[in-house]
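I'll show a sample.
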Amino acid sequence: MYISNIEVKNYKNFRSNIIEFNEGINVIIGHNNAGKSNLLKAMALIFNPSTKKNLTIDDFNKTIPLEELKVQPPSVNISITLTQEEKEDLMGDDLVVLSQWLTKLEEPYEAKIHYEYCLPLKHHEDYERMLSTTTSILEAWEIIDRNFLRLYTYKIYGGKLDNQITVDGEYLKKFDFQFLDAIRDVERDMFSGKNTLLKNVLEFFMDFDIKSNEGLDDDGKRLKIKDEKRKFEEQARNLMDSLNERMAEGKKQILSYSKDIGASFDNAEPNFAGSITDIELYSALKLIVEYQTGIQLPITHNGLGYNNLIFMSLLLAKMQVNASETFLGNNAKVFPMLVIEEPEAHLHPSMQRQLLKFLKQNLRDTKVRQIFVSTHSTHITGALSLDELICLYKADYETQVSYPGKVFGTNEESKKYVQRFLDATKSNMLFAERLILVEGLAEQLLMSIFAEYVGMSLEDNHVAVINVGGKYFDHFLNLFNTNNPAAINRKVVCITDRDPERKDLTIEKGSYKKCYPFEMNIEPSKYEYKINEQGLECPPNIKFYLQDEMKGKTLEYELACYNPTLKELVTDSMSNKEEIKDMMELYKEGKGIDELYSLLSNSKENARIINALKQGYLDWKDDEKKIALIAARYLNSVGKGVNALELAYVLESNLAKRGTEAYKDFMVPDYIKEAIEWVCKN
């Protein structure tokens, strides 16, 4: 059996949610306050015996409407469903524990456990009377806290909730819920032999070579372990005799004081005696770090990251102890689960990945039944399969859940593409509250700076910019397409280029090749034309923004079109720098287009540009042609990667001069400005 889902009602940020789980590892992701920790705490209310079961007023979901509060006292309900695993024969201990909680008696079997925290029925009349006149939601919660919360009780039921069958606590103890929370002091919790947890582990693994010897039956193992204990006791007795010899004279001096003070009477006096067992000696053991040089240091001298890893390994060892029926008899656990909150705490990226491999190996070795992890780490999510991820997020102030692995349906091609794409950097799209997806590096580097120029901050609005490496938006939009209930409901902007193209019809099997906007449709008998028209059909939370349909091409082209006199756009890595600056100067002076033509070097590409702009049926004004000429030459002179870095530096430096005479006006292209404004708008 495995925990297949949990239903949470009116607990903390959960109004009413069902979260589905996988058989093995479940990694719960989401932005801050999305409810990751609260989900684990909801599970703990049922499975963790050390979790306080009585709640506070702040544990209730506070979005319950006032009219609903007046009619019915608020209650917290948590239901967990356990389902038979594929190819699992439900026999033995699982069946013994779950038999009374079964709700589905055919395969795959299902069982349910419910936690309910509510006001007993006999107090409902007083409750309704006291809340009947309140007009404020705050006042209602104050009345509940002051007058009724002390009367609330909790129950844990099994099977169908209507039957109200109370769960036997002894059966509930069969679940080994090991919870490692985010705020942990592993040195305090584990690394001394005086600690019960470590002591239990040491006791279990003492004489493990005998306990795991398959050539011995149980009686043979007991006899050999008994013999080892006897040998130790003999050695310990010799040790104690040696200590007593060394203390003989000293003892006389110590005990003389007791005689002088009158502590000896009735022919009796104090003395020293004792023995030590192997179990008692555990308290003297402590974890150390031993280097190849032989140097030993206390574990407390280790970094927090390594100690966290050691702690988790010992915790899994303890779970092995807890599951041993030979060692614990009827007290053995049958359902070990490991729950870790923010495992990335104190771990650098490579150690996070190592931890993930370690946890998965323990699943394969069946040392743990299920693992639940909450994380903010993109390094962890980047190393997981999409099917192992559960995304919690808020939309319209309500907690929602998404399953990235389920949004693709039968589209395995897109799923595989996104899976390969989601490295530590790009998996940030699963955490961000809003997204801008772009084609390439230039847009990725410049988008945040563009936002500053239009008076907005992507960071303040929790917008992440993700470079999808081309026009591959459709693959990723599966994750956010709200027509699919498993998708993440996020505002997503896709910024892409028009990229006009044409195909020469006079060439057999000709292919589309890039062209300029001013070449579009000027020779319809010779060429077939097309432009990028992505984003024609999108759900309301997704929008595409492109350049002008008739005059747009790429980002670099647009930058020059909107800023035809801004020489700062001409960066050091560009070719034809002086030519472009001279053209900008002539345009600024209002010179004719022929003077701009005269600056161009003799080349096949320049001749093509001039020829297209001189076409008589191109319905463009001279000013538009001059701008297009500068933009075309600018585009052809750009080396994208390096230029984007240089341009980002130039524009950022210019921003710092805003309000001074040194500041240069820079116009953000309209399609980018509109995209930023839409994604940042609440």
About this structure: The chain has a mean pLDDT of 86.
